[in-house]
Design goal:
The chain has 244 residues and is α/β, with parallel strands linked by helices. 42% of the residues lie in helices and 21% in strands. The chain has helices at residues 2-17, 25-45, 53-65, 68-72, 91-97, 110-122, 135-138, 159-166, 184-189, 192-197, 238-241; strands at residues 80-83, 103-107, 128-132, 148-154, 170-180, 200-209, 216-224.
């Protein structure tokens, strides 16, 4: 993988310039190591279906960094959570280019959490907390409830379910970035009731294309305008079985 990883690293530099990101040699090296770790661990852990080098850089790394311009407009970011982060997307790439981020990575699968702890240590990322938990259980804990200024989630669940999991973590005025496919606005329209109950409003939608013709994506910037009722989130599984 070494040569193709280095070639993609050079191409990646040009892609992210369009997002306003200038990578230094250390950051390029971090991305190359991350790609290596992903491929090697995936041989035994099945972390992601995307294992080709060009797809890792386009569908994982660039896609994650597409949030950078939006986050830059929301500074300062006091606490950022990546909920359902999987193998670390979008949280880890964002942390590499924004080292000052106070980042929490949360996933419900132990094998992913083990991988993330390894990545964080090997890449020398400070100010990162990795948590193994379900959203419904974590969001009722005082240290996490309504204590995050920003939250991101990529391809995790349908919008009504996602809103119930996410909104309890955000403080009033906080922003949730839902990373979705091109049908994101249709999902939002079907989430009218959930958004009303959970006091969420759509601030903006942002569409973009992945490099190498690898698809269209969309981010919805959703703002929390009131405190979340104490009854949410409901017990594990309810938001999925019976969405608002």
């Amino acid at each position: 993988m070494g040569d193709s990883n280095q070639m993609m690293g050079s191409e990646f530099l040009q892609w992210v310039l369009k997002l306003g990101i200038v990578l230094d040699e250390h950051q390029v090296n971090q991305f190359q190591k991350y790609a290596d770790f992903l491929v090697k661990w995936n041989e035994t852990r099945n972390l992601t279906s995307i294992t080709e080098v060009d797809e890792i850089y386009s569908k994982h790394f660039f896609d994650s960094l597409a949030l950078f311009p939006l986050l830059q407009n929301q500074l300062p970011i006091h606490r950022l959570m990546d909920l359902g982060t999987g193998a670390g997307f979008p949280g880890v790439p964002l942390k590499i280019v924004m080292p000052e981020l106070n980042l929490t990575l949360c996933d419900s699968l132990r094998k992913r959490v083990d991988f993330l702890q390894y990545v964080v240590e090997e890449l020398g990322l400070s100010g990162v907390t990795v948590i193994h938990a379900r959203a419904e259980e974590l969001a009722i804990q005082k240290v996490h409830r309504e204590t995050y200024s920003h939250l991101v989630s990529r391809a995790v669940a349908s919008m009504p379910t996602l809103l119930e999991w996410v909104l309890p973590f955000l403080n009033v005025g906080g922003h949730f970035y839902a990373m979705k496919g091109p049908s994101a606005m249709e999902e939002w329209r079907l989430s009218n009731h959930a958004a009303k109950v959970l006091s969420a409003v759509l601030v903006q939608d942002y569409g973009y294309y992945l490099p190498l013709n690898m698809g269209e994506r969309m981010v919805l910037d959703i703002k929390k305008i009131k405190q979340t009722p104490r009854r949410f989130p409901r017990k594990p599984g309810d938001a999925t079985r019976n969405p608002l």
